[in-house]
Amino acid sequence: MPNAAVRTAVAVATASLLVLSGCSAESDAKAEFSGIVPAPARFELTDRGAFTLGERTRLVVSGDGAAAVAETFAAPLRTATGFELPVEEGAAEASDIELVIDPEVEGDEGYTLDSGADGVRIAASAPAGLFWGTQSLRQMLPGEIEEADPIEPEGGWQVPAASIVDRPRFAYRASLVDVARHFFPVDYVEQHLDRMALMKMNVLHLHLTDDQGWRIQIDAWPELTGIGASTSVGGDGGGFYTKDDYRRIVDYAADRFITVVPEIDLPGHTNAALSAYPELNCDGVAPKPYEGVEVGFSSLCASPARAEATDRFLTEVLAEVAEMTPGPWIHVGGDEPLATEPDDYLDLVRRITAAAAATGKTVIAYHEMGASTELPPGTIGHYWDLTAGHEMPANRRGEPARPYPESAGQAHAFLEQGGRLVLAPADKTYLDMMYPDRPAGPLGTELGTRWAATITLEEAYGWQPEATIDGLDESDILGVAASVWTETLSNAADFEFMVFPRIAAIAEVGWSPADARDEEGFRSRLTTLGAHLDGLGVAYREVGGVDWPG
Ligand code: ACM
């Protein structure tokens, strides 16, 4: 690479900097590259001239795992461009994209990217970093690169000349999807994974079970899906993943360096399981399947009379889920145990977490399980209550909503027992919370809920994870999650309207160094992200203050 004169655009590129960079001023400003989401740790536009992806472009790889990354990156590019884009080893030329494993690059997920008229070079010490580098390059290409049918953009497949040094702030950057309240099929989950990859999110947390549905095949307990998967909220039908379906999701995710975290929510939120197996109920009577939206009415039975069935259920279900899970984590829920006596809850938490730990996985649980002092060492706490100082809005009857005075202490209990925290405060990261202006969704219905807050794009973006609860050190935080609960979301259009673009704000909070974040720059960079989301057919909400393409 030549010794480029580097412009001073540190951390974020903005539309105005692009004018300085000399990129085709005559082309439609909206179609121009305005920067990458999430903001790289260091981003500089250079004057080496744009790279053009063309007929002759090859992906030239070196090092273990680079070819597989190149194939995953190249597949959609071949569709969009019609170019062959072969993956080869050897010497790279100016028309090529090089993907190089280089042990000098910092961090398992870190990468460097240099682009210019003399070629593109992405380097990383591990394949995950190379992959994230390709996702930055993906955003530097015109949004048409996402189209399923080849449409060459005006001006060709140009990549601005830039130099990037990047690595994530947090190791765990999750999208939590509730497939229990409404089921979303494998094809849609794959689409969502592709959108997560674009934003460098690396954990798909699937909320697989709840009162309204059980969504994962368990061979030893077939009625969990035979009976428990037939319903969803509002009588919208059921659905579940067979083991083959689930493996498809896991494999598709793994190709994109995304780990699937399966959640079996216990001991509450279990009506679907209880409706399938009478022996799990204290009174031996299976409740009816449930299609409402209330929470906190179901529980596994702590009674010794049900211990054999309950412990066999825990052991066998969690073992089968772990067997389908190549990733290191298994999530056992634990939230809102309003139908479980406190002593019974502690007893069940001990049995649930022991069964989960016996699978060899690291256990993750919602903060409520921090009430226990007997967690397996290193259990990860998933904090979903409000950020410190945030007041919950009054409920519909005008009563102050229920406070959660103990939740911060419960989160700290995970740290005291050797674990770390995933932070997902409902007033910042719950993407099913309404926008304050409560817009109708794309299909004309009211979407979302407001029990924790209403959340603007700016409020999601302004979240500071380290200030979520008092007394946190950066090293206490494993990562962040953007959650979407689907009581009111039954189809792709409604889901996307609530999730996008606020998920991009949380993706940036999770990836970018705190000092690389700035709201104006983020809004500007959403123009480019929007062009890619358009190419992917995402029905995002065109929130105000962003120059959306199109
Ligand atoms: C939750 O929102 N109950 C995890």
Structure in words:
The protein has 550 residues and is of the alpha/beta class. The protein has two domains: 4-166, Chitobiase/beta-hexosaminidase domain 2-like (Chitobiase, domain 2, 2-Layer Sandwich); 172-511, Glycosidases (TIM Barrel, Alpha-Beta Barrel). Helix content is 29%, strand content 16%. It has helices at 15-21, 66-81, 127-140, 186-198, 223-226, 243-255, 271-276, 307-323, 342-357, 407-416, 426-429, 457-461, 492-499, 502-511, 519-536, and strands spanning 42-45, 51-53, 59-62, 87-88, 97-101, 111-116, 119-124, 157-159, 162-166, 172-178, 203-207, 209-210, 213-214, 259-266, 329-333, 362-366, 380-383, 421-423, 477-484. The strands form four sheets. Strands 10-11-14-15-16-17-18-19 form an eight-stranded parallel barrel, surrounded by six helices. A seven-stranded mixed sheet has the order 1-9-6-7-5-3-4. The protein has a two-stranded antiparallel ribbon with strand order 2-8. Strand 12 and strand 13 (213-214) form a beta hairpin. Helix 2 packs parallel to helix 3, helix 4 (186-198) runs parallel beside helix 6 and helix 8 (307-323) packs across helix 9. The radius of gyration is 24 Å and the shape is globular. Mean pLDDT is 93; it is low at 1-30.
Query: How far do the termini sit from each other?
Result: 35 Å
CATH class descriptor of the largest domain? Alpha Beta
Structural class from helices and strands? Answer: alpha/beta
What's the overall geometry?
globular
Q: What's the arrangement of strands in the largest beta sheet?
A: 10-11-14-15-16-17-18-19
Largest sheet: 8 strands, parallel, barrel
Beta strand count? 19
